[in-house]
Amino acid sequence: MANIRLDKYLADAGIGTRSQVKEILKKNRVYVNDAVAKKGDIKIDTDIDVVALDGKAIGYQEYEYFMLNKPQGVVSATKDPRDKTVVELITENKRRDLFPVGRLDKDTEGLLIITNDGKLANNLLAPGKHVDKKYYVEVSGNVTEETVEYFKTGIDIGDEEMTLPAKLEILNVDGVGENATSACNITIMEGRYHQIKRMFKACGMEVLFLKRLSMGPVSLDEDLPLGGYRKLTEEEIKSLKEVHKI
Ligand code: URA
Fold this sequence. Notes:
Blueprint: E1 3-5, H1 6-12, H2 18-26, E2 30-32, E3 35-36, E4 43-45, E5 51-53, E6 56-57, E7 65-70, E8 99-100, E9 109-115, H3 118-125, E10 133-140, H4 145-153, E11 167-174, E12 181-188, H5 195-201, E13 207-215, E14 218-219, E15 229-231, H6 234-241
Parallel strand pairs: 9-13
Antiparallel strand pairs: 1-4, 2-3, 2-5, 5-6, 7-9, 7-15, 8-9, 10-12, 10-13, 11-12, 13-14
Bound molecules: uracil (URA).
Uracil (URA) binds next to helix 5.
């Protein structure tokens, strides 16, 4: 049950901005339980009250959860003066307060969860939460068993603290010496700025391609094209909430 103001209810439902909502209310277009509602400050019980605009009931959705297959060239933000944002790629949303759960670099692809549930985001991102994030990565250079061992110990990437241990799985190494390129899966528990790029840089290698495959219990849906998205299933939402029991 949630008790909220009518103007917030209408704005959250995507009817318009607060000032547009005010105008709509003035024009007697909104009914609450069969009575015309003119004032934005009346309280709505989202479980009981029926709100209608122009004779059509408007349902209330408190939270929305999407999985996006982020393409390159799009920034992990809600607004940006230059670039398209990940939130702008979600077009069938009811809520207007969506944000990405964490950040992927502009040139990183893959799984990004988009929601307006701040508690869930905090559950996954707050320092000390250490949720596994798995990526597919292609790098210049020869990744060896020695690199795997090094990543296991944690790496000095120039921050005050070493990184936590990361799991590196070698998938393929092409070529030799300076011309080699390697493909790996890497799982990290933190989300520091450019973390994977800096970890490989500390070993003299450059990340050429990076794609996130999973975050905690949720994996990227392989049917999603780049730039595509879908709602998270109830099980996926439940599994994310259970990561640290919220
Ligand atoms: N590490 C990086 O370097 N970049 C990302 O986008 C994610 C993890």
